[in-house]
Design brief:
- Keywords: Signal.
- Residues 73-112 are annotated as: Disordered.
- Residues 1-20 form the signal peptide.
- The chain starts with 11 loop residues before the first strand and ends with a strand.
- The chain has a domain at 9-22 and 49-104.
- It is built from no helices and 6 strands.
- Helix content is 0%, strand content 65%.
- Mean pLDDT is 58; it is low at 1-30.
Length: 112
């Protein structure tokens, strides 16, 4: 049986930046750092679909710059694959918070 080649590529890149907020009357500020990383990978062969989900969240307290990055990619031949990634970073006061998430899904038709 012949399979029609179907290639689906999704690339999602999200970057969020939260500016630093000053705290008045707080001497000797110290840095607090929070980081979270999540990676999900799904691979399917044959006529199946592959799904991958990744989520990362980081929270820091202190006067901060907070950065969140999310990357999602899906590669499919035949019946397709999908990937979702979400990253969130929240920062306040004297710290550094960063979050990154990546998810990848690959689907292959085993085909004849």
């Amino acid at each position: 049986m012949n399979f029609k080649a179907f290639v689906f590529l999704v690339l999602l890149s999200t970057a969020a930046t939260v500016p630093a907020r000053e705290l008045k009357g707080v001497p000797g500020r110290k840095l607090a750092q929070a980081s979270a990383n999540a990676v999900a990978q799904a691979i399917a062969s044959g006529n199946g679909a592959a799904f991958a989900n990744a989520a990362a969240q980081a929270t820091a307290s202190g006067e901060t710059l907070s950065i969140a990055n999310a990357n999602a990619s899906a590669n499919a031949s035949s019946n397709g694959g999908s990937a979702n990634a979400a990253a969130q970073a929240n920062a306040s006061s004297n710290g550094s918070g960063s979050a990154s998430a990546s998810s990848q899904a690959n689907a292959f038709a085993g085909g004849r």
